[in-house]
């Protein structure tokens, strides 16, 4: 039970932290574009967040399926 609570807290903290890491080339291009008045930086950040959310969504769906499968199996027994 303690391990489950630890993992829940750990993943909650990870999901709320913001990451500022970028590759040097992307950062240079986005900074140059923003200085020129462009909006590519916002689009790049949205794309990163979208791509980052997909593994979490897949993991959540897998856990949800596992939970309902075990629930159905326990009800049958």
How does this model look, in words?
With 77 residues, this protein is mostly helical. It has a domain at 26-55. It is 83% helix and 0% strand. It is built from three helices and no strands. It has helices at 2-16, 24-35, 40-76. The longest helix is centred in the C-terminal third of the chain and has 37 residues, at 40-76. The protein is elongated. The relative contact order is 0.06.
How is the secondary structure organized here?
Layout: H1 2-16, H2 24-35, H3 40-76
Short description:
By secondary structure, the protein is an all-alpha fold. It is built from three helices and no strands. It has helices spanning 2-16, 24-35, 40-76.
Strand content: under 5%
Poorly predicted ranges: none
Q: Provide the helix percentage.
A: over 70%
- How would you sum up the major sheet? none
Q: What multimeric state do the chains show?
A: single chain
What is the overall number of helices? 3
What are the key terms here?
77 residues; mainly alpha; 83% helix
